[in-house]
Design goal:
With about 375 residues, this protein is of the alpha+beta class. Helix content is about 50%, strand content about 15%.
C-alpha cells in the first residue's frame, strides 16, 4: 500500500502533531458549541492541507499519492474531531474537485485557488428533501436565462452550507431525462435569491455545519456552468462521489482509532477489584476485537485509495471500504463505551461523542444499503 511510502508517513507525522496539539484539546468544546470553527479551518488551509489532492499550478500542494495522502488527512483529522474533519474533507474533495476538473479559468481563479488556501469555503449540494439516494428525482431546476441560467429549488443536508462562499449545485436542465438531464452549477452565496432555510441540529458530527438551502430564481452566468448545459453533469459528479466513499471510510477509521486509543488508556488506568480492568479477560477480548476491526477497515480503505492513485477502477473497492469501515467504526465505538462502563455515558468522557459520530459515515455519502446495491450491480446481480 502507498500508506507505507516515506512521503506519506512524513505527511502523517506532521499532520498528527497538529491534530494532537491544536484539534484534540478543542474537540469536546467544538462538539458542544455545534459551530464551524473558522480559525482552525483557516489554519489548516494556510498549512496547505486543503490542497493535498491538487497540483501546485492551481494552488494545491502537489502531494504524492494524492488519494492515499488525502485519506490520511481525513483519518487524522477525524481522530481529533470527526465533525471538524467532515467539513474540511468536503472542502478538499468534492467541493473543490468539481471546480478543478470542469471549471474554466475564471472559476478557478475566483473560487478554487482561495478555497485551497482556506480563504473561501465551498460546498456541494445534491440531496433534496424528497430526493436522497434517488438522484433521478431531483427537482431543483435550471432554466435558460439571458447570459446564463436561473436556478429554483431546495437542497438539504449540505455540509458547509451556512458558511459557504460558493456551492456547486446539482440541478436538472431536462426533467424528462432523469439523471441524464442533471447539470452542475457554481453558485455564489451572495447571489440574489439564495437563502439558508435553516441550520440543521444534529446528534452526530455536531461541529460539521449542515444546512437546508433555498434557490429562488438565482442567476448563474454561463461561465459558472460546469458543463455544456445539455446534462450529463451528474455522471461527472458521480466520479467525485465514488472516490469520496474512500474518504468517508477514512473518517470512520480515524474516529474508531480515537475510540480504541481512549479505551486502551482507560483500561490501563481504571482499577477494580485491586487491579486495572485491562487485566480482566472480558475487557481484553473487547480490545482485541476492536483492534481487529480497525485493521480490517484500514486494509480495505487504503487498498481502495492505492487503486485510485493508480487510476484503476474503484467502484467496488470504494463501496466495500465504506461499508466495512463505517460499520466497524460503529462496532468499535460501541465496545469502547462498554469499556468505560457508566463513565461512557458521561459527557465529560469522549466515548459518547465517538459513538454519536460513528453514525455519520454509515449514512453520509450513501447508506450501507446503497453501497451494497452498488457492489451487487458490479457483481452482475
Amino acid at each position: 500500500m502507498n500508506l507505507q511510502q516515506p512521503e506519506v508517513q512524513e505527511y502523517r507525522r506532521h499532520l498528527s502533531r497538529w491534530v494532537d496539539e491544536r484539534l484534540v484539546p478543542q474537540a469536546a468544546r467544538l462538539d458542544e458549541l455545534n459551530d464551524f470553527n473558522v480559525e482552525l479551518f483557516r489554519e489548516i488551509g494556510a498549512l496547505g492541507y486543503l490542497g493535498t489532492m491538487y497540483p501546485e499550478e492551481v494552488g494545491g500542494s502537489g502531494a504524492p499519492f494524492p488519494y492515499t495522502t488525502f485519506s490520511v488527512l481525513c483519518e487524522e483529522l477525524a481522530r481529533g474531531s470527526m465533525g471538524f474533519a467532515a467539513g474540511v474533507c468536503m472542502q478538499g474533495s468534492t467541493a473543490t474537485h468539481t471546480l478543478h476538473a470542469w471549471g474554466g479559468d475564471e472559476v478557478k481563479q475566483r473560487w478554487l485557488r482561495p478555497a485551497l488556501a482556506g480563504e473561501k469555503v465551498g460546498a456541494f449540494a445534491i440531496t433534496e428533501p424528497d430526493a436522497g439516494s434517488d438522484a433521478a428525482s431531483l427537482r431543483t431546476r435550471a432554466r435558460r436565462g439571458d447570459g446564463g441560467w436561473v436556478l429554483t429549488g431546495r437542497k438539504i443536508f449540505t455540509t458547509n452550507g451556512t458558511v459557504a462562499d460558493f456551492i456547486t449545485v446539482v440541478a436538472t436542465v431536462d426533467p424528462s431525462r432523469a439523471a441524464k438531464g442533471l447539470e452542475l452549477f457554481v453558485v455564489d452565496t451572495a447571489s440574489r435569491g439564495f437563502g439558508i432555510g435553516r441550520k440543521l441540529d444534529k446528534v452526530s458530527v455536531r461541529c460539521s455545519d449542515t444546512a437546508e438551502l433555498t434557490f429562488d430564481e438565482v442567476f448563474v452566468p454561463d461561465s459558472h456552468c460546469l458543463g455544456d448545459g445539455a446534462g450529463g453533469g451528474f455522471l461527472r459528479a458521480y466520479q467525485s462521489l465514488t472516490v469520496d466513499r474512500i474518504f468517508t471510510a477514512a473518517l470512520a477509521l480515524g474516529n474508531a482509532q480515537a475510540a480504541y486509543d481512549g479505551a486502551v488508556r482507560y483500561a490501563k488506568e481504571r482499577r477494580q477489584f485491586g487491579q486495572p480492568i485491562g487485566q480482566f479477560q472480558a475487557v481484553q477480548f473487547r480490545l482485541v476485537d476492536m483492534f481487529a476491526r480497525l485493521e480490517r477497515a484500514k486494509l480495505l480503505t487504503y487498498h481502495a485509495a492505492a487503486l485510485a492513485d493508480r487510476g484503476e477502477p474503484i467502484t467496488t473497492e470504494a463501496a466495500l471500504a465504506k461499508i466495512v469501515a463505517a460499520e466497524d467504526c460503529h462496532g468499535v465505538c460501541e465496545l469502547a463505551l462498554s469499556v468505560f462502563g457508566g463513565y461512557g455515558l458521561m459527557n465529560e468522557f469522549p466515548a459518547q461523542r465517538y459513538l454519536r459520530d460513528s453514525y455519520f459515515p454509515m449514512i453520509g455519502g450513501g447508506t450501507g444499503d446503497i453501497m451494497r446495491l452498488v457492489v451487487a450491480r458490479q457483481l452482475g446481480l
